[in-house]
Request: fold
Amino acid sequence: MSATSRCRVCAGSLAEFFDFGRQPLSDAFVRPDDFADEFFVRLAVGICESCTMVQLMEEIPRDRMFHEDYPYVSSGSAVMRAHFEKLARRLLATELTGEDPFVVELGCNDGVMLKAIADAGVRHLGVEPSGGVAEMAHAKGIRVRKDFFEETTARDILATDGRADVIYAANTLCHIPYIESILRGVTALLAPTGVFVFEDPYFSEIVERTSFDQIYDEHFYFFTVRAVQAMAARFDLELVDVERLPVHGGEVRYTLAHAGARTPTAAVAELLADENKRNLAAMPTLKGFARNVERIRDDLVALLRDLRDDGKRVVGYGATAKSATVTNYCGIGPELVPFVCDTTVAKQGKLTPGSHIPVREPSAFAEPYPDYALLFAWNHAEEIMAKERAFREAGGKWILYVPEVHVV
Ligand code: JHZ
Ligand code: SAH
Ligand code: ZN
Reply:
Protein backbone atom coordinates (compact mmCIF):
# COMPACT_ATOMS: atom_id res chain seq x y z
CA MET A 1 0.00 0.00 0.00
CA SER A 2 1.43 3.33 -0.92
CA ALA A 3 0.53 6.42 1.06
CA THR A 4 -0.13 9.48 -1.02
CA SER A 5 -1.01 13.04 -0.21
CA ARG A 6 -0.98 14.19 -3.82
CA CYS A 7 -3.84 14.08 -6.30
CA ARG A 8 -3.50 11.13 -8.68
CA VAL A 9 -4.87 13.26 -11.53
CA CYS A 10 -3.08 16.63 -11.24
CA ALA A 11 -0.56 16.22 -8.36
CA GLY A 12 -2.34 18.97 -6.38
CA SER A 13 -2.45 18.62 -2.61
CA LEU A 14 -5.22 16.60 -1.00
CA ALA A 15 -7.31 17.83 1.91
CA GLU A 16 -8.56 14.84 3.89
CA PHE A 17 -12.16 15.09 5.10
CA PHE A 18 -13.00 11.68 6.52
CA ASP A 19 -11.08 8.76 7.99
CA PHE A 20 -12.85 5.41 8.40
CA GLY A 21 -9.81 3.92 10.11
CA ARG A 22 -8.58 0.40 9.52
CA GLN A 23 -10.74 -1.37 6.94
CA PRO A 24 -10.49 -4.79 5.28
CA LEU A 25 -10.71 -5.31 1.52
CA SER A 26 -14.43 -5.17 0.84
CA ASP A 27 -14.66 -8.22 -1.41
CA ALA A 28 -12.20 -10.39 0.53
CA PHE A 29 -14.72 -12.81 2.06
CA VAL A 30 -12.88 -15.15 4.40
CA ARG A 31 -13.13 -18.83 5.18
CA PRO A 32 -14.38 -19.41 8.76
CA ASP A 33 -11.18 -21.31 9.64
CA ASP A 34 -8.77 -18.87 8.04
CA PHE A 35 -8.84 -15.17 8.86
CA ALA A 36 -5.43 -14.80 10.47
CA ASP A 37 -3.90 -12.95 7.54
CA GLU A 38 -6.68 -10.54 6.61
CA PHE A 39 -5.34 -7.47 4.85
CA PHE A 40 -6.33 -4.08 6.23
CA VAL A 41 -5.85 -0.59 4.87
CA ARG A 42 -6.38 2.91 6.22
CA LEU A 43 -9.52 4.07 4.44
CA ALA A 44 -9.57 7.86 4.28
CA VAL A 45 -10.92 10.21 1.66
CA GLY A 46 -9.83 13.66 0.56
CA ILE A 47 -10.41 16.31 -2.07
CA CYS A 48 -7.81 17.82 -4.39
CA GLU A 49 -7.34 21.49 -3.62
CA SER A 50 -6.56 22.16 -7.30
CA CYS A 51 -8.81 20.04 -9.52
CA THR A 52 -11.44 19.05 -6.87
CA MET A 53 -11.21 15.33 -7.61
CA VAL A 54 -12.36 13.39 -4.54
CA GLN A 55 -10.22 10.31 -3.92
CA LEU A 56 -8.86 7.86 -1.38
CA MET A 57 -5.75 8.96 0.47
CA GLU A 58 -4.04 5.60 -0.06
CA GLU A 59 -3.75 3.32 -3.05
CA ILE A 60 -4.32 -0.42 -2.66
CA PRO A 61 -2.35 -2.82 -4.87
CA ARG A 62 -4.71 -3.84 -7.67
CA ASP A 63 -3.85 -7.55 -7.64
CA ARG A 64 -5.00 -7.79 -4.03
CA MET A 65 -8.50 -6.76 -5.11
CA PHE A 66 -8.93 -8.08 -8.66
CA HIS A 67 -7.83 -11.69 -9.09
CA GLU A 68 -9.06 -15.20 -9.90
CA ASP A 69 -11.42 -15.29 -6.92
CA TYR A 70 -12.92 -11.81 -7.23
CA PRO A 71 -16.51 -12.60 -6.14
CA TYR A 72 -18.69 -9.78 -7.54
CA VAL A 73 -20.86 -10.99 -10.42
CA SER A 74 -22.66 -8.25 -12.33
CA SER A 75 -25.60 -10.33 -13.58
CA GLY A 76 -26.92 -10.96 -10.05
CA SER A 77 -29.54 -8.23 -10.38
CA ALA A 78 -32.36 -8.34 -12.94
CA VAL A 79 -32.57 -4.54 -12.85
CA MET A 80 -28.86 -4.23 -13.67
CA ARG A 81 -29.16 -6.78 -16.50
CA ALA A 82 -31.96 -4.68 -18.03
CA HIS A 83 -29.95 -1.49 -17.46
CA PHE A 84 -26.95 -2.79 -19.42
CA GLU A 85 -29.07 -4.34 -22.19
CA LYS A 86 -30.77 -0.99 -22.69
CA LEU A 87 -27.42 0.79 -22.92
CA ALA A 88 -26.11 -1.81 -25.40
CA ARG A 89 -29.18 -1.31 -27.61
CA ARG A 90 -28.69 2.44 -27.50
CA LEU A 91 -25.00 2.21 -28.43
CA LEU A 92 -25.86 -0.16 -31.29
CA ALA A 93 -28.44 2.31 -32.60
CA THR A 94 -26.48 5.53 -32.19
CA GLU A 95 -22.72 4.93 -32.09
CA LEU A 96 -22.15 1.60 -33.79
CA THR A 97 -23.84 2.19 -37.13
CA GLY A 98 -20.73 2.56 -39.30
CA GLU A 99 -18.98 -0.16 -41.22
CA ASP A 100 -17.47 -2.85 -38.95
CA PRO A 101 -17.69 -0.91 -35.67
CA PHE A 102 -15.59 -1.93 -32.67
CA VAL A 103 -16.41 -1.70 -28.94
CA VAL A 104 -13.98 -2.10 -26.05
CA GLU A 105 -15.25 -2.56 -22.50
CA LEU A 106 -13.09 -2.08 -19.41
CA GLY A 107 -14.17 -4.31 -16.53
CA CYS A 108 -16.72 -6.33 -18.50
CA ASN A 109 -17.06 -8.69 -15.54
CA ASP A 110 -19.34 -11.63 -16.50
CA GLY A 111 -20.30 -10.00 -19.80
CA VAL A 112 -23.56 -8.45 -18.63
CA MET A 113 -23.26 -5.59 -21.19
CA LEU A 114 -21.18 -7.15 -23.96
CA LYS A 115 -23.52 -10.13 -24.37
CA ALA A 116 -26.01 -7.94 -26.26
CA ILE A 117 -23.18 -6.50 -28.39
CA ALA A 118 -21.87 -9.98 -29.18
CA ASP A 119 -25.39 -11.21 -30.00
CA ALA A 120 -25.72 -8.33 -32.49
CA GLY A 121 -22.58 -9.62 -34.22
CA VAL A 122 -20.61 -6.45 -33.49
CA ARG A 123 -16.83 -6.63 -33.06
CA HIS A 124 -15.93 -6.21 -29.40
CA LEU A 125 -13.36 -6.89 -26.71
CA GLY A 126 -13.83 -7.05 -22.95
CA VAL A 127 -10.76 -6.32 -20.84
CA GLU A 128 -11.20 -7.98 -17.47
CA PRO A 129 -8.40 -8.88 -15.02
CA SER A 130 -10.50 -11.01 -12.66
CA GLY A 131 -10.16 -14.54 -13.99
CA GLY A 132 -13.35 -16.08 -12.60
CA VAL A 133 -15.74 -13.52 -14.03
CA ALA A 134 -13.71 -13.19 -17.26
CA GLU A 135 -14.25 -16.92 -17.74
CA MET A 136 -18.02 -16.46 -17.27
CA ALA A 137 -18.01 -13.82 -20.00
CA HIS A 138 -15.97 -16.07 -22.28
CA ALA A 139 -18.46 -18.90 -21.72
CA LYS A 140 -21.20 -16.57 -23.04
CA GLY A 141 -19.37 -16.24 -26.35
CA ILE A 142 -17.78 -12.89 -25.56
CA ARG A 143 -14.25 -12.05 -26.64
CA VAL A 144 -12.32 -11.31 -23.44
CA ARG A 145 -8.74 -10.38 -22.69
CA LYS A 146 -7.81 -11.30 -19.13
CA ASP A 147 -5.81 -8.23 -18.26
CA PHE A 148 -5.79 -4.87 -16.55
CA PHE A 149 -6.54 -2.12 -19.05
CA GLU A 150 -3.84 0.57 -19.07
CA GLU A 151 -1.87 2.45 -21.71
CA THR A 152 0.20 -0.54 -22.86
CA THR A 153 -2.92 -2.71 -23.17
CA ALA A 154 -4.62 0.03 -25.19
CA ARG A 155 -1.69 0.31 -27.60
CA ASP A 156 -1.62 -3.44 -27.98
CA ILE A 157 -5.35 -3.54 -28.78
CA LEU A 158 -4.88 -0.70 -31.25
CA ALA A 159 -2.19 -2.69 -33.05
CA THR A 160 -4.31 -5.82 -33.38
CA ASP A 161 -7.87 -4.51 -33.69
CA GLY A 162 -7.61 -0.88 -34.79
CA ARG A 163 -9.43 2.09 -33.28
CA ALA A 164 -12.52 1.72 -31.12
CA ASP A 165 -15.77 3.56 -31.85
CA VAL A 166 -16.94 3.10 -28.28
CA ILE A 167 -14.89 2.53 -25.16
CA TYR A 168 -17.15 1.75 -22.23
CA ALA A 169 -16.62 1.24 -18.51
CA ALA A 170 -19.31 0.80 -15.84
CA ASN A 171 -18.30 0.87 -12.20
CA THR A 172 -14.70 0.40 -13.23
CA LEU A 173 -13.01 3.72 -14.04
CA CYS A 174 -13.55 4.95 -10.46
CA HIS A 175 -11.70 1.79 -9.33
CA ILE A 176 -8.46 2.72 -11.11
CA PRO A 177 -5.97 5.02 -9.29
CA TYR A 178 -3.59 4.99 -12.32
CA ILE A 179 -6.25 6.85 -14.32
CA GLU A 180 -3.61 8.84 -16.20
CA SER A 181 -2.46 5.67 -17.95
CA ILE A 182 -6.09 4.75 -18.72
CA LEU A 183 -6.83 8.12 -20.30
CA ARG A 184 -3.63 8.11 -22.35
CA GLY A 185 -4.69 4.66 -23.54
CA VAL A 186 -8.20 5.86 -24.33
CA THR A 187 -6.88 8.84 -26.30
CA ALA A 188 -4.70 6.52 -28.39
CA LEU A 189 -7.34 3.85 -28.95
CA LEU A 190 -10.44 5.97 -29.55
CA ALA A 191 -11.48 6.65 -33.16
CA PRO A 192 -11.53 10.37 -34.14
CA THR A 193 -15.34 10.46 -33.81
CA GLY A 194 -15.58 7.83 -31.08
CA VAL A 195 -16.81 8.14 -27.50
CA PHE A 196 -15.52 7.03 -24.13
CA VAL A 197 -18.58 6.37 -21.97
CA PHE A 198 -18.27 5.58 -18.28
CA GLU A 199 -20.69 5.46 -15.37
CA ASP A 200 -19.85 5.53 -11.69
CA PRO A 201 -21.39 6.58 -8.36
CA TYR A 202 -22.00 10.34 -8.33
CA PHE A 203 -20.28 12.17 -5.48
CA SER A 204 -23.06 14.75 -5.31
CA GLU A 205 -25.52 11.92 -4.61
CA ILE A 206 -23.21 10.41 -1.96
CA VAL A 207 -23.15 13.74 -0.12
CA GLU A 208 -26.87 14.37 -0.61
CA ARG A 209 -27.87 10.93 0.72
CA THR A 210 -24.92 10.36 3.07
CA SER A 211 -24.34 7.05 1.28
CA PHE A 212 -20.95 6.69 2.96
CA ASP A 213 -20.86 2.97 2.23
CA GLN A 214 -19.90 3.87 -1.36
CA ILE A 215 -16.49 4.61 0.15
CA TYR A 216 -14.42 1.41 0.29
CA ASP A 217 -11.13 0.08 -1.07
CA GLU A 218 -12.31 -0.53 -4.65
CA HIS A 219 -13.82 2.94 -5.11
CA PHE A 220 -10.73 5.12 -5.46
CA TYR A 221 -12.35 8.12 -7.16
CA PHE A 222 -15.68 9.85 -6.50
CA PHE A 223 -16.45 11.72 -9.68
CA THR A 224 -18.14 15.06 -10.21
CA VAL A 225 -18.79 16.91 -13.46
CA ARG A 226 -16.32 19.58 -12.43
CA ALA A 227 -13.45 17.18 -11.72
CA VAL A 228 -14.14 14.97 -14.73
CA GLN A 229 -14.26 17.98 -17.03
CA ALA A 230 -10.90 19.20 -15.74
CA MET A 231 -9.40 15.72 -15.97
CA ALA A 232 -10.59 15.19 -19.55
CA ALA A 233 -8.98 18.44 -20.67
CA ARG A 234 -5.56 17.26 -19.45
CA PHE A 235 -5.71 14.44 -22.03
CA ASP A 236 -7.12 16.40 -24.98
CA LEU A 237 -10.50 14.90 -24.31
CA GLU A 238 -13.73 16.78 -23.67
CA LEU A 239 -16.78 16.04 -21.55
CA VAL A 240 -19.63 16.21 -24.08
CA ASP A 241 -22.56 14.68 -22.21
CA VAL A 242 -23.73 13.64 -18.76
CA GLU A 243 -26.75 11.63 -17.75
CA ARG A 244 -27.95 10.84 -14.25
CA LEU A 245 -28.69 7.17 -13.60
CA PRO A 246 -30.83 5.74 -10.79
CA VAL A 247 -28.78 2.53 -10.42
CA HIS A 248 -26.34 1.74 -7.59
CA GLY A 249 -27.76 4.52 -5.45
CA GLY A 250 -27.31 7.30 -8.00
CA GLU A 251 -24.68 7.49 -10.72
CA VAL A 252 -23.66 9.68 -13.61
CA ARG A 253 -22.87 8.40 -17.09
CA TYR A 254 -20.16 10.62 -18.57
CA THR A 255 -19.42 10.78 -22.32
CA LEU A 256 -15.97 11.95 -23.41
CA ALA A 257 -14.86 12.62 -26.98
CA HIS A 258 -11.67 13.95 -28.55
CA ALA A 259 -11.51 17.68 -27.83
CA GLY A 260 -13.51 19.60 -30.41
CA ALA A 261 -15.03 16.51 -32.01
CA ARG A 262 -18.53 16.98 -30.58
CA THR A 263 -20.57 19.84 -29.18
CA PRO A 264 -21.24 19.44 -25.45
CA THR A 265 -24.92 19.07 -24.56
CA ALA A 266 -26.71 21.52 -22.26
CA ALA A 267 -26.82 18.78 -19.60
CA VAL A 268 -23.11 19.27 -18.89
CA ALA A 269 -23.44 22.94 -17.97
CA GLU A 270 -26.67 22.27 -16.06
CA LEU A 271 -25.20 19.60 -13.82
CA LEU A 272 -22.06 21.66 -13.28
CA ALA A 273 -24.21 24.60 -12.19
CA ASP A 274 -26.04 22.30 -9.78
CA GLU A 275 -22.73 21.20 -8.23
CA ASN A 276 -21.67 24.81 -7.80
CA LYS A 277 -25.00 25.71 -6.23
CA ARG A 278 -24.48 22.89 -3.72
CA ASN A 279 -20.91 24.04 -2.93
CA LEU A 280 -19.95 20.44 -3.49
CA ALA A 281 -16.20 21.03 -3.39
CA ALA A 282 -16.23 23.31 -0.34
CA MET A 283 -14.78 22.05 2.96
CA PRO A 284 -17.86 23.03 5.04
CA THR A 285 -19.99 20.81 2.75
CA LEU A 286 -17.58 17.91 3.21
CA LYS A 287 -17.40 18.43 6.97
CA GLY A 288 -21.20 18.39 7.02
CA PHE A 289 -21.11 15.06 5.22
CA ALA A 290 -18.66 13.76 7.84
CA ARG A 291 -21.02 14.76 10.68
CA ASN A 292 -23.92 13.01 8.94
CA VAL A 293 -21.85 9.82 8.62
CA GLU A 294 -21.17 9.80 12.36
CA ARG A 295 -24.83 10.38 13.15
CA ILE A 296 -25.96 7.52 10.94
CA ARG A 297 -23.39 5.22 12.56
CA ASP A 298 -24.67 6.14 16.04
CA ASP A 299 -28.34 5.76 15.03
CA LEU A 300 -27.80 2.41 13.34
CA VAL A 301 -25.83 0.91 16.21
CA ALA A 302 -28.37 2.20 18.74
CA LEU A 303 -31.26 0.67 16.78
CA LEU A 304 -29.53 -2.71 16.40
CA ARG A 305 -28.66 -2.81 20.13
CA ASP A 306 -32.22 -1.93 21.11
CA LEU A 307 -33.61 -4.66 18.90
CA ARG A 308 -31.17 -7.20 20.32
CA ASP A 309 -32.04 -6.18 23.88
CA ASP A 310 -35.74 -6.60 22.99
CA GLY A 311 -35.02 -10.15 21.82
CA LYS A 312 -35.73 -9.39 18.14
CA ARG A 313 -34.01 -11.33 15.35
CA VAL A 314 -32.17 -9.24 12.73
CA VAL A 315 -30.66 -10.70 9.56
CA GLY A 316 -28.53 -8.91 6.95
CA TYR A 317 -29.63 -8.90 3.32
CA GLY A 318 -26.95 -8.66 0.59
CA ALA A 319 -23.27 -9.22 1.43
CA THR A 320 -22.28 -6.15 -0.56
CA ALA A 321 -18.82 -4.66 -0.88
CA LYS A 322 -20.41 -1.48 0.53
CA SER A 323 -21.41 -3.31 3.71
CA ALA A 324 -17.76 -3.84 4.63
CA THR A 325 -17.53 -0.12 5.40
CA VAL A 326 -20.81 -0.14 7.32
CA THR A 327 -20.07 -3.16 9.49
CA ASN A 328 -16.41 -2.36 10.16
CA TYR A 329 -16.80 1.37 10.68
CA CYS A 330 -19.90 0.95 12.89
CA GLY A 331 -18.57 -2.11 14.71
CA ILE A 332 -21.42 -4.41 13.65
CA GLY A 333 -20.62 -8.11 13.98
CA PRO A 334 -22.49 -11.41 14.39
CA GLU A 335 -23.64 -10.41 17.90
CA LEU A 336 -25.93 -7.78 16.29
CA VAL A 337 -26.47 -9.39 12.87
CA PRO A 338 -26.03 -13.19 13.17
CA PHE A 339 -25.87 -13.79 9.42
CA VAL A 340 -26.36 -12.16 6.04
CA CYS A 341 -27.92 -13.86 3.03
CA ASP A 342 -26.65 -13.40 -0.50
CA THR A 343 -27.22 -15.05 -3.88
CA THR A 344 -23.51 -15.08 -4.77
CA VAL A 345 -22.34 -18.69 -4.48
CA ALA A 346 -18.69 -17.63 -3.99
CA LYS A 347 -19.63 -15.59 -0.89
CA GLN A 348 -21.82 -18.25 0.75
CA GLY A 349 -20.24 -20.25 3.56
CA LYS A 350 -17.68 -17.50 4.10
CA LEU A 351 -17.50 -14.61 6.58
CA THR A 352 -17.81 -10.94 5.73
CA PRO A 353 -14.38 -9.26 5.67
CA GLY A 354 -13.29 -7.80 9.01
CA SER A 355 -16.72 -8.05 10.66
CA HIS A 356 -16.91 -11.86 10.28
CA ILE A 357 -20.65 -12.22 9.80
CA PRO A 358 -21.47 -15.59 8.20
CA VAL A 359 -22.88 -15.39 4.65
CA ARG A 360 -25.69 -17.83 3.89
CA GLU A 361 -27.78 -18.73 0.87
CA PRO A 362 -31.02 -16.74 0.30
CA SER A 363 -33.21 -19.67 1.41
CA ALA A 364 -31.89 -19.17 4.97
CA PHE A 365 -33.82 -15.89 5.07
CA ALA A 366 -37.18 -17.63 5.43
CA GLU A 367 -36.13 -20.34 7.91
CA PRO A 368 -37.99 -18.77 9.68
CA TYR A 369 -38.21 -15.10 8.69
CA PRO A 370 -36.42 -12.73 11.09
CA ASP A 371 -38.25 -9.81 12.71
CA TYR A 372 -36.04 -7.31 10.85
CA ALA A 373 -33.83 -7.43 7.76
CA LEU A 374 -30.95 -4.97 7.50
CA LEU A 375 -30.83 -4.15 3.79
CA PHE A 376 -27.14 -3.81 2.95
CA ALA A 377 -28.06 -3.98 -0.78
CA TRP A 378 -30.23 -0.84 -0.40
CA ASN A 379 -29.42 0.18 -3.97
CA HIS A 380 -31.45 -2.85 -5.10
CA ALA A 381 -34.29 -2.14 -2.64
CA GLU A 382 -37.11 -2.16 -5.18
CA GLU A 383 -36.02 -5.43 -6.77
CA ILE A 384 -35.35 -7.16 -3.45
CA MET A 385 -38.48 -5.95 -1.66
CA ALA A 386 -40.60 -7.13 -4.60
CA LYS A 387 -38.90 -10.52 -4.56
CA GLU A 388 -39.27 -10.82 -0.77
CA ARG A 389 -42.84 -9.57 -0.58
CA ALA A 390 -43.78 -12.52 1.65
CA PHE A 391 -41.38 -11.29 4.34
CA ARG A 392 -43.35 -8.07 4.83
CA GLU A 393 -46.63 -9.95 4.57
CA ALA A 394 -45.40 -12.16 7.42
CA GLY A 395 -44.87 -9.02 9.54
CA GLY A 396 -41.16 -8.53 8.79
CA LYS A 397 -39.63 -5.04 8.59
CA TRP A 398 -36.75 -3.66 6.57
CA ILE A 399 -34.04 -1.52 8.15
CA LEU A 400 -32.39 1.02 5.83
CA TYR A 401 -29.63 3.53 6.64
CA VAL A 402 -29.72 5.68 3.49
CA PRO A 403 -30.34 8.61 3.62
CA GLU A 404 -31.19 8.17 7.33
CA VAL A 405 -31.68 5.16 9.55
CA HIS A 406 -35.32 4.14 9.13
CA VAL A 407 -37.58 1.12 9.32
CA VAL A 408 -40.18 0.26 6.66
P1 JHZ B 1 -24.23 -4.60 -5.19
C1 JHZ B 1 -19.85 -4.22 -6.12
O1 JHZ B 1 -20.39 -3.51 -5.03
C2 JHZ B 1 -18.37 -3.97 -6.16
P2 JHZ B 1 -21.54 -4.14 -4.10
C3 JHZ B 1 -17.93 -2.93 -7.15
N1 JHZ B 1 -16.81 -2.24 -6.55
C4 JHZ B 1 -18.99 -1.95 -7.51
O2 JHZ B 1 -18.72 -0.81 -7.79
C5 JHZ B 1 -20.38 -2.44 -7.65
O3 JHZ B 1 -20.48 -3.80 -7.31
C6 JHZ B 1 -20.86 -2.29 -9.08
C7 JHZ B 1 -26.62 -9.75 -3.61
N2 JHZ B 1 -28.02 -9.82 -4.03
O4 JHZ B 1 -24.69 -4.72 -6.57
C8 JHZ B 1 -25.63 -9.90 -4.73
C9 JHZ B 1 -28.86 -10.71 -3.44
O5 JHZ B 1 -28.45 -11.49 -2.54
O6 JHZ B 1 -24.99 -3.69 -4.33
C10 JHZ B 1 -24.48 -9.06 -4.31
O7 JHZ B 1 -23.58 -9.78 -3.49
N3 JHZ B 1 -30.17 -10.78 -3.86
C11 JHZ B 1 -17.50 -3.57 -8.42
O8 JHZ B 1 -21.14 -5.52 -3.73
C12 JHZ B 1 -25.13 -7.97 -3.48
O9 JHZ B 1 -26.39 -8.47 -3.05
C13 JHZ B 1 -30.66 -9.95 -4.82
O10 JHZ B 1 -31.85 -10.04 -5.17
O11 JHZ B 1 -21.82 -3.18 -3.05
C14 JHZ B 1 -25.39 -6.71 -4.29
O12 JHZ B 1 -24.20 -6.03 -4.49
C15 JHZ B 1 -29.78 -8.99 -5.42
C16 JHZ B 1 -30.28 -8.03 -6.48
C17 JHZ B 1 -28.46 -8.95 -4.99
O13 JHZ B 1 -22.71 -4.19 -5.23
N1 SAH C 1 -18.97 -3.40 -15.36
C1 SAH C 1 -19.49 -4.30 -14.38
C2 SAH C 1 -18.41 -4.74 -13.39
C3 SAH C 1 -18.04 -3.80 -12.30
S1 SAH C 1 -16.94 -4.59 -11.17
C4 SAH C 1 -20.66 -3.69 -13.66
O1 SAH C 1 -20.89 -2.50 -13.75
O2 SAH C 1 -21.34 -4.42 -12.96
C5 SAH C 1 -15.42 -3.77 -11.56
C6 SAH C 1 -14.61 -4.63 -12.51
O3 SAH C 1 -13.47 -3.90 -12.95
C7 SAH C 1 -14.10 -5.91 -11.86
O4 SAH C 1 -14.61 -7.00 -12.56
C8 SAH C 1 -12.58 -5.77 -11.97
O5 SAH C 1 -11.92 -6.99 -12.19
C9 SAH C 1 -12.42 -4.81 -13.15
N2 SAH C 1 -11.17 -4.03 -13.22
C10 SAH C 1 -10.42 -3.54 -12.20
N3 SAH C 1 -9.35 -2.89 -12.70
C11 SAH C 1 -9.43 -2.94 -14.06
C12 SAH C 1 -8.62 -2.47 -15.14
N4 SAH C 1 -7.50 -1.78 -14.93
N5 SAH C 1 -9.01 -2.73 -16.41
C13 SAH C 1 -10.15 -3.43 -16.64
N6 SAH C 1 -10.94 -3.91 -15.67
C14 SAH C 1 -10.59 -3.67 -14.39
ZN1 ZN D 1 -6.16 17.22 -8.64
About this structure: The mean pLDDT is 97. The chain has 13 helices and 19 strands. The radius of gyration is 21 Å. Residues 62, 66, 70, 72, 74, 106-107, 109, 127-130, 133, 148-149, 170-172, 175-176 surround S-adenosyl-L-homocysteine (ligand 2) (CB under 6 Å).
